[in-house]
Write a structure and sequence with these properties.
Elements: H1 2-40, H2 52-69, H3 73-81, E1 87-95, E2 100-107, H4 110-121, E3 126-136, E4 145-153
Antiparallel strand pairs: 1-2, 2-4, 3-4
Length: 155
C-alpha cells in the first residue's frame, strides 16, 4: 500500500514540475516576442517645435544639473587641513548659491576657536572666514564654547 501511495506522489510531483516547466517556457517565448517587437519598432519620435514651457523646463534642468555638479571638495579639503584636536565640529550647513559654508563648532576656550578661524582663513579656496556668534553652553557640565562660523569659498 505504501509503495502505491509513494508512486502516486511521485507521478503527481513529476506532473506538477512538467506543467511549471511548460508555463515557464511559454512565458519566455512571450517575452522573447515582446523584445523582438520592441527592437523592430521605430525609435524616432515625432519632433515638435519647442514651446515656451519646454524652454523653461530646459532652463530648470540646466540649473539643477549645475547644482548637482557643484564641487564641495575645496571646502572639505580646507576643513580637513584646518582640523584641530581642540575643536569639535557640531554641524555644517552649505549654501551652494552663495558658495558659503556655515559651521557650528565647540571649543574649550575662545582662543582655540580664534586659532581655528585663522587656520581656516589661510586655506586655499577660502575667501573669507567670519565668526558669527559665540556662547558658553551653561547646561553642559564641561561648559564648552559654541561658535558659529561662516566660511566663504572662492577662487
Amino acid at each position: 500500500m505504501l509503495g502505491i501511495v509513494l508512486a502516486l506522489a511521485g507521478v503527481t510531483a513529476l506532473t506538477w514540475s512538467w506543467m511549471n516547466l511548460q508555463a515557464a517556457r511559454a512565458t519566455e517565448a512571450g517575452l522573447a516576442m515582446q523584445i523582438a517587437a520592441l527592437q523592430q519598432s521605430p525609435t524616432h519620435r515625432a519632433v515638435k517645435p519647442p514651446t515656451r514651457g519646454d524652454e523653461a523646463a530646459s532652463a530648470t534642468r540646466a540649473s539643477v544639473a549645475a547644482q548637482l555638479n557643484y564641487s564641495w571638495q575645496p571646502a572639505f579639503d580646507a576643513l580637513a587641513a584646518a582640523r584641530s584636536s581642540k575643536i569639535a565640529l557640531v554641524s555644517l550647513d552649505a549654501v551652494q548659491a552663495t558658495s558659503r559654508v556655515k559651521l557650528v563648532a565647540e571649543a574649550r576656550q575662545l582662543a582655540d576657536a580664534i586659532a581655528y578661524i585663522e587656520t581656516l582663513q589661510q586655506q586655499p579656496g577660502v575667501r573669507r572666514v567670519e565668526l558669527l556668534q559665540h556662547e558658553v553652553q551653561a547646561d553642559d557640565a564641561q561648559k564648552p564654547l559654541r561658535v558659529s562660523i561662516l566660511v566663504e569659498l572662492g577662487p
